[in-house]
Structures are given as structure tokens and as C-alpha cells.
Amino acid sequence: MLEAEVIERVHSGRRDEALAAILRAYKRKVFGLALSYLRDREAAQDVAQEVFIKVWKALPRFDERATVSTWIYTITRNTSLSAIRARRPNASLSDPEVMEAVEMSAADSAEEGSDADGAALRRLVEQLPPKQRQVVTLFYMQEQSYDEVAEMLAMPVGTVKTLLHRARARLQELQ
Hints:
Layout (H helix, E strand, L loop, with lengths): L1 H10 L3 H24 L2 H18 L9 H19 L9 H17 L3 H11 L3 H12 L4 H8 L3 H18 L1
């Protein structure tokens, strides 16, 4: 439904309406994916804003080779990776600014979950290695298929399945 709606609006020159529909559908998902890469709420919010600016600018050139969601997630992944590369290279947990950001992020995560199980699960997922965390976030929390996750993260489907298998095993160990 959204896919057809967005494409129809873009083709009829109503790019702002197409973006409004995309924002309603993907705002939280884009933020969640950016957060899984960056592990910093403010940086993830900045990346999410940048993603939607890029989407708005690129909408007229959207060629429908991929689904709208895959296209948006790819932009999110690339923008997140660019943000990671742009970060200060020498940041460490001994840096007071970094430690404060980590503590704030942990506090925000704990406050977000209204149920204890959800908050506990999010804390466990945060302990996974980055690739496993990203795959778990997309597959389970954002309900993407193996193929969609593979396309979004630019990896083979077999790798996605392997990372999910390892993540599940790791999560069982962490419990």
C-alpha cells in the first residue's frame, strides 16, 4: 500500500506528500537502525534527519529497482557508516564526554521500555557484536525478511542467517 502510494505521489509531482507518508511509516525504524549502528541517541537523531533530507532530495530519481523500505534502509546504513567514520578516532570510555553519553544512552534505554522484559531484551541485544545487533534489530524488531536484511546490510542471505544463529546463541548465554 505505502509503496504504491509513494510511487504514485512521486510520479505526479507531489514529492512533499510522498515524504510525509514515508516519515509516518519509517521515522522510528530509521532511527532504530541508525541507533543500532551509532549507539548514541543524539547521533542517531542527526543521522535520521539527514536520511530523510537525502530521501526527499532523491525521491524524483527513485527508480523502483528496490522497494521503498530497502532503499531507505540502504540510505540509513550508508549515512550511519559515514557518521561513524566522521567521529573522533580517539574516543574511549575513559573520555568523560563519551562516558556521559554512554550513561545517558543506557538511562534512556531503561526509561523507554515500559515493560521490564522489553527493556531487559534491549539491554541484551545491545551487548551483541555490531553486525549481530544490526541483523537482530532488522529481522526481529523491524520484522524484515532474510532477503530484505541481506539487501539492506549488503551481505549474502547465508551470512544473515549465520549472524542470527550466532546472535540467538549469544543471547541465550547472556541470560
